[in-house]
Amino acid sequence: MTLKQQKIDVTDRVVGKLKNGELELYLENERIGKMTLPEGCMLELEHHFEGSGKSIYQNVTTTDQPEAKYTDCDQGGWC
């Protein structure tokens, strides 16, 4: 039995994470490289996301008082 080197196309399995102006590349959980983004590059995001500086934010709707308890429940606990 002999071993030989072979190339496998993993392009569609590579993901990127933004960090300090660079795009870090991962295959599964292994960091495989990085891509430096040029200064002033344009970032196009979906309508409920926005970029600011080196961060990306998601606009979400949350409850105003997440710890508020039900007030219209009867003595048996039925609301």
Please, what is the average pLDDT?
A: 86
Biggest sheet statistics? 3 strands, antiparallel
Q: Tally the beta strands.
A: 5
Structural class: mainly beta
- Determine Rg (CA atoms, Å): 24 Å
Contiguous uncertain segments of 5+ residues: none
Distance between the termini: 72 Å
Total number of helices: 0
Order of helices and strands: EEEEE
Strand order of the largest sheet: 1-2-3
Overall 3D geometry? elongated
Helix content: under 10%
Organism: Robertmurraya mangrovi
Protein name: YusG family protein
Pfam family, one: DUF2553
InterPro entries: Uncharacterised_YusG
Structure commentary:
By secondary structure, the protein is an all-beta fold. The protein has a domain at 13-58. Helix content is 0%, strand content 34%. It contains no helices and five strands. It has strands at 14-19, 22-27, 30-36, 49-52, 55-58. The strands form two sheets. The protein has a three-stranded antiparallel sheet with strand order 1-2-3, with no helix packed on it. Strands 4-5 form a two-stranded antiparallel sheet. A hairpin with a 2-residue loop joins strand 1 and strand 2 (22-27). It is elongated, with a radius of gyration of 24 Å.
Main traits of this protein?
79 residues, mainly beta, two-stranded antiparallel ribbon, elongated, Uncharacterised_YusG, YusG family protein
What's a quick, concise take on this entry?
This is YusG family protein. The chain has 79 residues and is mostly beta strands. It has a domain of 46 residues.
